Fold this protein.
Amino acid sequence: MKITSVQAIVLRLPDVTTAADGTQDTCLIRIETDAGITGWGEVDSAPTVVRAAVEAPLSNGITRGLASALEGSDPLAIDACMQRIYDLTQYYTRYGAGAHAVAGVNIALWDIAGKAYGQPIYRLFGAAQRQVRAYASVLFQDTPADTYDLAARLADRGFTAAKFGWGPMGQSEANDIALVREARRGLGDDVDLMVDAGQPWDWRTALVRTRQFAEYRPFWLEEPLHPEDVAGYGKLSAVSEIPIAGGESESRLLDFEELILVGGLDWVQADPGRCGITTMVEIGRLAARHQRGFVNHTFKTGVSIAASLHVLAAVPNTQVLEYAMTESPIRHELTYEDFELDAGWVGPSDAPGLGVTINEATLERYGVA
């Protein structure tokens, strides 16, 4: 089997705002083969930058687009494909959007492998199907009162855990406390509350917030610091009574290792659309060796949810799944599979590959030429 084409497909809603909502647009990776098997991946990054990385023409011996690097390769030789990418695109794929583009390609290669072998991806890692508890992932609302209302609705829907993030968090001490207080009040005492701060503080301010938030019993405090402040994470994690979570901005195993060993994270969050499936499994196993919790970061479509579920089944230290609650049609209409929850739990599909089917009408409706 040979790869015949690698395409980047950009989707975008008509109106995109500054909200921290990754479902307003996305970039899909489609890999075609001469055997008629198609693989799909998704990237969580700047979609048009990712497309440029895929479509770039030959520049020199170690700088070419991902499509050029992969065409003619055997998609089932995933490690060899990844090495070829690193050899031929190393000037722009080690970090940032280039690395994210590689992650999407990696997901698509695993999708092809599962389809070729007639197995769901998690079985290719020697894993058994496993259900995980889904937590509703939403943004903090404009006011504490609105945050309370949303939290109450999520509790009424039967979620046993919910995460509130970004929005106005970090703008003032009083409002930060009020947002977390009202989220807890709306959820009630029996629903786990995760708080995603959205990178607003230095480590000393974050430590103050952990003490102010403590009475509301956060399950974790996510991304309180800038992702490059690894030393700050280490100082905070060493003294915080609230578990500290982070890592979604990273792509490389090496950087996650630093966040664990130096940053002291209690919960390691990896995004398949920035790491790919291969690296994400390695990160989960690394976290397990260091007795840290491991969870996906996924605020995209059914493609990324499917990838996350296969990875979470393949590593031992997973308890929860991020489950975005945005109303975006890109989130809900891209795949025919909608990952319905069973009493708040969900697991990977037993269908070959990712186990998702792309709705071509959604591609046509929101595709950007």
